């Protein structure tokens, strides 16, 4: 009980010290939670961040020269026969 009693006397003796401790603790706790959530978010979205940077790079290249990416943007589809129909020869 000696440590808790000493901590109680240190923090609870004056109202101004207690209020300062609560406000500083809330600020430090908010910063710690914000930092932790930000690190977890970055860890979970590493692949998305890389894709976003790649997309931004391709978009910048397209803006500077629109004809540069036309082969990438064109999709080619093969004709797929509809079910129930015979393929034409």
Automatic annotation (TrEMBL):
Where does this chain mainly localize?
Answer: mitochondrion
Q: Which SUPFAM superfamilies match?
A: Subunit X (non-heme 7 kDa protein) of cytochrome bc1 complex (Ubiquinol-cytochrome c reductase)
Transmembrane residues, as ranges?
Answer: none
Biological process terms from the Gene Ontology for this record are: mitochondrial electron transport, ubiquinol to cytochrome c
**What stretch or stretches form a coiled coil here?**
none
The source's superkingdom equals: Eukaryota
Q: Which UniProt keywords apply?
A: Electron transport, Membrane, Mitochondrion, Mitochondrion inner membrane, Respiratory chain, Transmembrane, Transmembrane helix, Transport
Q: Does the keyword Transcription apply?
A: no
InterPro entries found in the cross-reference section: QCR9, QCR9_sf
Q: Where in the cell is it found?
A: Mitochondrion inner membrane
Q: Name one Pfam family in it.
A: UCR_UQCRX_QCR9
**GO cellular component assignments:** mitochondrial inner membrane; respiratory chain complex III
Membrane topology, record value: Single-pass membrane protein
**What protein family does this chain belong to?**
Belongs to the UQCR10/QCR9 family.
What is the protein name stated in its UniProt record? Complex III subunit 9
- Organism ancestry: Eukaryota, Viridiplantae, Streptophyta, Embryophyta, Tracheophyta
């Amino acid at each position: 009980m000696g440590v808790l009693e000493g901590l109680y006397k240190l923090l609870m003796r004056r109202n101004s010290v207690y209020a300062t401790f609560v406000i500083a603790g809330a600020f430090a706790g908010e910063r710690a939670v914000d930092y932790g959530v930000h690190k977890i978010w970055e860890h979970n979205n590493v692949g998305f961040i890389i894709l976003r940077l790649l997309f931004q790079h391709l978009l910048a290249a397209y803006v500077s020269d629109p004809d540069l990416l036309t082969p990438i943007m064109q999709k080619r589809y093969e004709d797929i026969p509809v079910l129930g129909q015979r393929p034409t020869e």
